[in-house]
Amino acid sequence: MEYSTTGIAGGYLTNSISESTHQPVQLLCRSYCDLVPYSMEQGKSGGFVSSVLLDYKNHSGYTPCVNVLVNGNSTEHKVMAMNHPAAIRLKENFPNIGLQAANFRGQIQISVPPAHFLPVVTFLRDDPTLRYDLLVDVTCVDYLNFPSWNQPRFGLVYIFSSVKKDTPRLIVRVFLNENALEIPSLVPLFAGAEWLEREAFDMFGITFTGHPDLRRILTWDSFKSYPLRKDYPVTGLGERENYPVITRQDA
């Protein structure tokens, strides 16, 4: 089942969706939505289709449900097809842990609850059909005061790729509250995570439990703040004022 739209703006559908063929299509959405298998519900004429698309066993597709604006009406529920091998395999093997997903500009993101993060990443690495054996990057985003944000403040970003398999790149997100900034280290699974996690610790204050050498990497050991948090002043907290100015002539 495919849905077409005549306009997309600001990450939300701006026109009606209609039934056309029997293949999945990816629509632009910035929201995180529950990752669920779905069944078809008949759409209203010139209006919308509620619920979700294709059953994955027949069409190899999953979708998150999303709320979007259609003709200025924000109460209608729309659908987005997601035909990504990681989404399918994760939903098969972790059906009840609260996985969520989003697709923005063709980049698939899957949000994993912190308590299930390590088993999910281990599965992504070891599953013979996926083999996400390369951790490309680890970083973090501080969503403090972000408009209409309904997730925890800090969002970790893990980018995975595969050297052995032709699986598309995958972004895994984990969201942490300010009072629980701990997540298992991936160093036991990916040795290259060591310095990446140290940077997230240094800049955001994320603690990676089980890290073999968790210390600052860009600032000095006695530095007390986290420079990439949104509440850290642009000009700092006086750290630079405590050091003498060295001119070129004195260097």
Which structural class should the secondary elements be placed in? Answer: alpha+beta
Poorly predicted tracts of residues:
1-30, 37-81
First-to-last CA distance? 69 Å
Number of strands: 14
Using the alpha-carbon principal axes, give the shape. elongated
Into which percent range does the helicity of residues fall? 10-25%
Major sheet strand order: 7-6-5-8-9-12-11-10
* pLDDT averaged residue by residue: 75
Put simply, the count of helices is 4
Cα Rg = 22 Å
User: Main β-sheet, in a few words?
Assistant: 8 strands, mixed
Order of helices and strands: EEEEEHEEHEEHEEEEHE
Percentage of residues in strands: 25-35%
What structural keywords apply?
251 residues, single chain, 25% strand, two-stranded antiparallel ribbon, 8-stranded mixed β-sheet, 14 strands
Structure report:
By secondary structure, the chain is α+β, with helices and mostly antiparallel strands. The chain is built from four helices and 14 strands. The model is unreliable at 1-30 and 37-81 (pLDDT under 50).
Brief summary of the model shown:
The chain is α+β, with helices and mostly antiparallel strands and 251 residues long. Helix content is 14%, strand content 25%. A hairpin with an 8-residue loop joins strand 11 (154-161) and strand 12.
